[in-house]
């Protein structure tokens, strides 16, 4: 074995050692309680939708900012690009090629979610309680609270009932909104592989085999 191949094998071994224990199998056993999540492909971006009542106690306290909501749609992205209605070339290039601060976009959804996202590709995933708690914990840790009980909204979101919040992590071309969502799914037990998806289609390709349904109830 040549020295380069030996070095690569050593690096892979170190990476594997640092990944920690594998998360629990997300698929609920027959008769076991479960929580459903939805992944919606909105083109450039895939959104994560959680039923608010399913969120474990103590997680995502920002959900109380949406008292009438039945569901929350969450997305993560570049601070300036995501909040801009018309980002333009400069913000696009800055977001892609320079690690930048990030935000979470949270939208409250009341009632039926099917009509709100009509025409988009849907995937529903059912998670057993422990894997769902892993996913919810990943989302919870994404809020930048700086020691406070909850993160304050920093501005209105893209919808009537939505807001932006400061987030943890740096955005760049190799860690995009879709990579953040892949991290949430990995925390819930879904195998995402070595490389983060950059596009929504790459993410959807990874999770389509695990779909419980391909449309909301």
Report on this model:
With 217 residues, this protein is α+β, with helices and mostly antiparallel strands. It contains 6 helices and 7 strands; from the N terminus they run αβββααββαββαα. The chain has helices spanning 3-18, 79-83, 88-97, 129-142, 177-187, 200-207, and strands at 35-41, 46-51, 71-78, 100-109, 121-127, 155-156, 162-171. A 7-stranded antiparallel sheet has the order 5-1-2-3-4-7-6. Helix 4 (129-142) packs antiparallel against helix 5 (177-187). The protein is globular. The protein starts with a helix and ends in a 10-residue tail after the last helix. Residues 1-22 have low confidence and may be disordered.
* Portion of residues within helices: 25-40%
Our Rg estimate from Cα atoms comes to: 18 Å
Q: Name the poorly predicted regions.
A: 1-22
Strand content: 15-25%
Envelope shape: globular
Helix-strand sequence: HEEEHHEEHEEHH
Structural class assignment:
alpha+beta
What features would you highlight for this structure?
217 residues, alpha+beta, seven-stranded antiparallel β-sheet, 6 helices, disordered N terminus
Write the layout of secondary structure elements.
Layout: H1 3-18, E1 35-41, E2 46-51, E3 71-78, H2 79-83, H3 88-97, E4 100-109, E5 121-127, H4 129-142, E6 155-156, E7 162-171, H5 177-187, H6 200-207
Antiparallel strand pairs: 1-2, 1-5, 2-3, 3-4, 4-7, 6-7
Helix pairs in contact: 4-5
